[in-house]
Amino acid sequence: MGEVYLKKASGSAAATDSKTAEIVAGMLADLEAGGEDAARETAHKLDGWTGDILVPEDWFRDAEKRLSATVKDDIAYAHKRVRDFAQHQRDSQQEFEVELLDGLVTGQRLVPVNTAGCYVPGGRYAHAASAIMSVCTAKTAGVENVIATSPAKGEDRVHPAILYAMKLSGADHVLSLGGVQGVAALTFGHFTGHPADIIVGPGNSFVAEAKRMLFGRVGIDVFAGPTESMVAADETADPKVVAMDLAGQAEHGPDSPVWLVTTSRRLGEVVIEMMPDVIKSLPGLSGESAAAAWRDHGEVILVDSREEACAVCDRYAPEHLQVQADDLGWWLRSLKNYGSLFLGEETTVAFGDKCSGPNHILPTRGAGRYSGGLNAQKFIKVLTYQRMTRDASKGVAQVASRISRLEGMEGHAKTGDIRLEKYFPGEVFDLAPEALR
Question: Which residue among the candidates 269, 320, 345, 427 is catalytic per the annotation?
Fold first, then answer.
């Protein structure tokens, strides 16, 4: 039978359009040239914010007072899970030193970046969990200076839950800026004097495009697109749970793809039948977004075997991949391309999004084929070094000189020659590659 689409997407998750790129390019140029004044003007124009940009300490105290004990306990719960997981990631990396041959010593050091910029969205939702995912992970990795930014709108400050999460996670400075101006401030060091070495965190299409344009000048976590989620299921899966998981991820936005790949025709058809009612249970903008996402980007793919289902998952390389099927160990061993994997009905993407531990800042648009999501190691540079004795240098220099001449790089070759002449005067060495004789 092969792959059969019981429902196929009518639209596509388009890449950044040329108009967005043009707007962002112009904004970045203005923000760099105009500095902090331009950032303030942009915040006023786009968000109606005229207050402090660098968040003062009393804001954090006020934010804590405004939150209930339950909210603070929940944020602390999420923080501990994320911090502990990030610490295990950090501990899994090791510095080492090894002698590759007598007198040739090599090694690697693990050095955190100096400054990390963490962008935390604050538009439709209060993304307290994103503050934890970015700031806490950077601090756990050992970053000395973490600068976070999130928009303040109108007369409102940054959302108190976001501020509380940032403070708990260890942010050294917080800016009340969103959008392109927030990314620019992190990159250029506005308001803190510390240009970021890397910028992480989710955002809208303008934020994603700003990060893309600045990549190279500053490191970034992932090239982000709309949130996407796939469920792989067999006949043992509960269609109500599958439908709710798809709808729950579709609420991210009208351009958020949700996909189901299944070996059960009955499951696929029942899920399709259920989706309209499940989406109607979501209130307001959540329901509207989910309805559009399911209509335009939702897919249900029927396959003959779990091997074929696995191949579909690897081809899509989804940001989030849930498995609701028998023999979860097989799926864990077999699946290779995804941002984060959720095994079994007992877990779901929302758990990872909010509080279970692994990071929710993940690759989209197929980038899971070659990249993982944000982790403690993303903030750490793996720096190599080497040293050698003169005896070790004797062998290495001869080979390096010959390879350099083979490649036509005489200057490289001579850096080896000069050491052989200095350390071993009077000895004759064969320094011409055979191919050139």
Answer: 320
